[in-house]
Automatic annotation (TrEMBL), chain A:
The lineage of its organism: Eukaryota, Viridiplantae, Streptophyta, Embryophyta, Tracheophyta. The keyword Acyltransferase does not apply. Regulatory subunit of the dolichol-phosphate mannose (DPM) synthase complex; essential for the ER localization. GO terms for biological process: dolichol phosphate mannose biosynthetic process; GPI anchor biosynthetic process. Signal peptide: none annotated. Belongs to the DPM2 family. This is Dolichol phosphate-mannose biosynthesis regulatory protein. It comes from Rubroshorea leprosula.
From TrEMBL, chain B:
Stabilizer subunit of the dolichol-phosphate mannose (DPM) synthase complex; tethers catalytic subunit to the ER. InterPro entries: DPM3. The keyword Zinc does not apply. Its main location: endoplasmic reticulum. The chain crosses the membrane at residues 34-56. GO terms for cellular component: dolichol-phosphate-mannose synthase complex; endoplasmic reticulum membrane. PANTHER family: DOLICHOL-PHOSPHATE MANNOSYLTRANSFERASE SUBUNIT 3. This is Dolichol-phosphate mannosyltransferase subunit 3. Pathway: Protein modification; protein glycosylation.
Length: 80, 89
């Protein structure tokens, strides 16, 4: 049981560290590299560095408000 | 001071720093425009990291679990003797 917990925790921290290093490289270091370097192949164009977090944030906000509305409706129906 | 005031002052300080960076143009302009998004993404990453690390280091206390099971068995026996229905297994 605790092995499953440890595996999930390790997976979460690994994902967060990868996202952090990839995003830092993308936003901070890549503009300083000349555009002919091979490393530009591994990174999407720079506009996506803004679009993807904004999109994920908007989706999260929508899911959150849907969840809150759903819970409020369910509690109102139970009281009535 | 209330907690929300502290958070608001931190936010105001960070935005003042960002506007100052925009005005002084030490760092290239395109970098400075991306800084708030980078900050939010790294904050989310940090939260996820803390959750993962906390999950990994969660203590399960196996001895206390055993003692708890013994207590439960003892309580069930006692209650059954006194006529209370304990149900389940």
């Amino acid at each position: 049981m605790e092995l499953a917990d440890r595996a999930v925790g390790f997976l979460l921290s690994f994902i967060s560290l990868t996202i952090f290093t990839y995003y830092s490289l993308w936003v901070i270091i890549l503009p300083f590299v000349e555009s002919e370097h091979f490393i530009h192949k591994y990174f999407l164009p720079q506009e996506y560095a803004i679009l993807i977090p904004v999109f994920v944030g908007v989706v999260l906000l929508c899911l959150l408000s849907m969840f809150i509305g759903f819970v409020m409706l369910k509690s109102k129906k139970k009281k009535a | 001071m209330k907690h929300v005031l502290k958070i608001l002052t931190i936010l105001v300080a960070i935005s003042a720093f960002w506007i100052g960076l925009l005005q002084a143009s030490i760092v290239p302009r395109s970098h400075t425009w991306l800084l708030p998004i980078y900050f939010i993404v790294s904050l989310g990453c940090y939260g996820l990291l803390m959750v993962g690390v906390g999950l990994m280091r969660f203590p399960t206390c196996p001895q206390e679990a055993l003692l708890l099971q013994k207590d439960i068995a003892e309580a069930k026996v006692f209650l059954k003797q006194n006529g209370v229905d304990v149900g389940s297994d």
